[in-house]
UniProtKB/TrEMBL annotation:
Pfam family, one: HTH_18
Full protein name: AraC family transcriptional regulator
Species per Swiss-Prot/TrEMBL record: Xanthocytophaga agilis
Keyword Transcription regulation tagged: yes
Tagged with keyword Transcription regulation: yes
Amino acid sequence: MESSLILQHNMVYSCSYQKIKSTEHYFPEHALGIMLSGESLYFTNQSTFVMKEEAICLMRRNQLFKKLKNLGPNGEPIALISLFLDQKSLKQYAAENNITKQSAYKGTPMIDLTGNVFLKGFFDSLLPYIDSPKKLTAKIAELKTCEAIELLLQTGSVFQNFLFDFSEPHKIDLEAYMNHNYKYNIPLSSFAKLTGRSLSTFKRDFTKLFETTPEKWLQQKRLEQAHFLISKKGQRPSEVYLEVGFENLSHFSFAFKKQFGYVPTELTKTG
């Protein structure tokens, strides 16, 4: 099991002694993190990003990705510290430091900062709070957040645009986006935000476009993809259900049988 310790509202330490299969993630805020031990693989529609021990990464907000966590080579736990740079803190920092409005950020959503000794030192300064979380007061957390922002800005000019582009997702092509991202098991409210819509507008536009509800369409789309992967690609149901966006194998098998009339393991039988 994975356990998470919230050091402060925007600082989290997580640790697990078990390999964690692919899970969906959507961060509404920027995330700066360091891998203390173990390994995390991040999969987006564009690329794969690997974080091993001491790797440091900055992830842009409003990104969809799947994550696979592995123990270290000698059984070390999967442990990392994440700092979320929320919009409120960034807007306050921008106002206090006269940072003007930035143009839309067009760069990579994940930036590798491994080897940055100043950021490594920053995360080292957080380690004592894992054993004494009450010592990390809200005031210290605020100062630490500002320190992280300062260190990123010193690293390169691109980070000003990365951090202080406060634009929200604009209304985009719903059909193309959903056909591209249906495998991500996130709330409809997140799909709505990422396509530049309110939840009510998202549901209305979706039903008009696909002539069914988002819930029904997503399940059917995921099941059809699962059927293809099992029957045509030879994958096992246990390999497929997470990949196509189901939370557990039993629910997947039940929905699969209801859709096709037989359980997914029937497709794996020969002769």
